[in-house]
């Protein structure tokens, strides 16, 4: 996940008020107060404790060291994708935070200058995160042991889940601006509806932590006065490109997941059916 919705005060990496401003734009007023200190990131000890707690929970659920390694490594690569995009688009230096029992968060120093940049940051995590599957698939090809494919599937799964258009997952930040471009109320209704369905899905499958996390996110979104972050809104062309990139990233995640399932099934139809059963995690 990426944190691109929370307003922040200008930091040391911000340009001077006259830089990055259109020639006909009014000059910014004087900044009141001292600049906010640079975010130094998560303390290494707390990061280690958080990682151990998350790894312990994954092992309790899966009983597999390979899946623990895949999820933790996949999480790191996923969040680093957000970091690379944030730094490239002038939001850095971004930091990675490990959230105990829940996952990770990439946090920039400032908001994106446009919703298009926000979409790119949101999709950079799942797209880049799929690269984490390469070493696990390489170990499968080298050893012939299908246990390594569990790691490939786990990485595809966590990136696909992050593309769900439910707050605060990456999918909501990628599709939200597109829906708001059509009509602001469409974004609210669609994201809350999908979020509510995701919570019910988690409860019905016994994934209480996942359901509780999304329920808390839905509640916080309902309490927010303004849904759209600051910055230039999407143009219609950018909305089309955002939708296309979202679809391509989703297809890539599904494709990597099917590659992991392929050795255990004989046909594409069986692979799709088996994948649908596996994605119903929980009970």
Major sheet attributes: 3 strands, mixed
Shape: globular
Percent helix, as a range, is 55-70%
The sequence of SSEs as H and E is EHHEEHHHHHHHH
How far is the first residue's CA from the last residue's CA?
Answer: 25 Å
Q: How many helical elements?
A: 10
Average pLDDT number: 79
Which structural category do the helix and sheet elements fall into?
mainly alpha
Strand content: under 5%
Task: Please give a structural write-up.
The chain has helices at residues 44-62, 65-88, 115-129, 133-143, 147-162, 170-182, 184-204, 208-223, 236-261, 268-278; strands spanning 2-3, 95-99, 103-107. With 283 residues, it is mainly alpha-helical. The chain has one domain. The protein has a three-stranded mixed sheet. A hairpin with a 3-residue loop joins strand 2 and strand 3. Helix 3 runs antiparallel to helix 5 (147-162) and helix 7 runs antiparallel to helix 8. The model is unreliable at 11-34 (pLDDT under 50).
Highlighted features:
283 residues; three-stranded mixed β-sheet; mainly alpha; 4% strand; 10 helices; globular; single chain
Summarize the structure.
It is built from 10 helices and 3 strands; from the N terminus they run βααββαααααααα. The chain is mostly helical.
């Amino acid at each position: 996940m990426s944190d691109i919705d929370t307003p922040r005060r200008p930091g040391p990496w911000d340009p001077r008020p006259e830089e990055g401003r259109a020639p006909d734009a009014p000059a910014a007023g004087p900044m009141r107060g001292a600049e906010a200190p640079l975010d130094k990131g998560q303390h290494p000890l707390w990061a280690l404790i958080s990682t151990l707690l998350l790894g312990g929970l994954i092992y309790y659920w899966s009983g597999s060291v390979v899946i623990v390694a895949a999820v933790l490594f996949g999480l790191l690569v996923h969040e680093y994708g957000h970091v690379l995009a944030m730094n490239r688009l002038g939001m850095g230096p971004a930091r990675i935070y490990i959230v105990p029992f829940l996952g990770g968060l990439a946090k920039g120093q400032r908001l994106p200058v446009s919703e298009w940049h926000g979409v790119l940051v949101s999709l950079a995590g799942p797209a880049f995160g799929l690269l984490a599957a390469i070493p696990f698939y390489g170990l499968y090809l080298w050893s012939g042991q299908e246990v390594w494919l569990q790691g490939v599937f786990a990485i595809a799964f966590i990136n696909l889940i992050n593309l769900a258009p439910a707050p605060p997952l990456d999918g909501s930040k990628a599709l939200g601006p597109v829906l708001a471009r059509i009509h602001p109320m469409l974004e609210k209704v669609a994201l809350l509806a999908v979020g509510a369905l995701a919570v019910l899905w988690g409860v019905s499958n016994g994934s209480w932590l996942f359901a509780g996390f999304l329920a808390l996110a839905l509640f916080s979104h309902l309490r927010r006065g303004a849904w759209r972050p600051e910055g230039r809104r999407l143009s219609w062309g950018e909305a089309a490109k955002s939708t296309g990139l979202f679809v391509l990233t989703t297809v890539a995640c599904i494709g990597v997941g099917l590659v992991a399932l392929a050795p255990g099934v004989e046909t594409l139809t069986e692979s799709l059916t088996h994948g649908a059963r596996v994605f119903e995690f929980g009970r």
